Amino acid sequence: MEKMTFTTDRTTVTEGEIVEVRWDCPGAESVDLSIDNGYKTSVIPLETSGSKRFRLNRSKGRTRLVLTAHVGGKGFSKAIKIKVKEIPVTKAETVDQRGEKMGWLKRWMNMPKWQSFLTRYRQGRQAMPKEKKLASNLLLMLGAVLLLGAVIPFVLPLGLFALACYLLWVVMKR
Questions:
Q1: Sites in the chain below the pLDDT cut of 70
Q2: DSSP string, 5-17
Q3: So what's the pLDDT on residue 23?
Q4: 80 in Cβ contact with 6 (< 8 Å)
């Protein structure tokens, strides 16, 4: 079929944009448009001439449009490939009240459960007698030294030395 025309308004789009397709198949008995986006193929029956607009949402990089005109039991086809670019992904970042970026540690520290724990811990420390505060300090320091010593072995002797210095300071202070 020599007089068959098949055009699109553009051959490169970004996902979600609209493409207008125009065709004219004089003398055709029926016309079909096949749209293959790499995931599935859809076939749409059309009039022998006209235009139609399509939104190209999902594609594996290329969408192939094939117009097939049927005349006397024979099929005549024309194909157009449209390059479909992915939508650029925008990453959202968490910011504090001043608009500064928050890292994972700052976000974790601002979680309601953590804030509730810190508030209760501070209130509990205010109500503790001096001996319990001292024991609490020693326990926290020993825990930190042991934890760091498990990860970085040379920190353990230094941490124990620092703990001994703290205890000496507490004894000498009284």
A1: 1, 108, 174
A2: EEEES-SEEETTE
A3: 94
A4: yes
Dist. CA 76–CA 126, nearest whole Å:
88
Neighbour tally for 37: CB within 10 Å: 19
CA distances from 88 to 14, 15, 16, 62, 91 (A): 9, 10, 12, 17, 10
What is the Cα–Cα distance from 51 to 64, expressed in whole angstroms?
A: 17
What distance in Å separates the CA atoms of residue 1 and residue 67, rounded to the nearest whole number? 12
- CATH code of the region 5-85: 2.60.40.1930
The candidate with the shortest Cα–Cα distance to 62, out of 2, 5, 22, 13, is 13
The Cα-based distances of 64 to 31, 44, 70, 98, 171 in angstroms read: 16, 14, 19, 49, 83
The 17-24 sheet, strands edge to edge:
5-8, 17-24, 49-56
Q: In the chain, where are the structural domains located?
A: 5-85, 94-127, 129-174
Whole-model pTM: value is 0.52
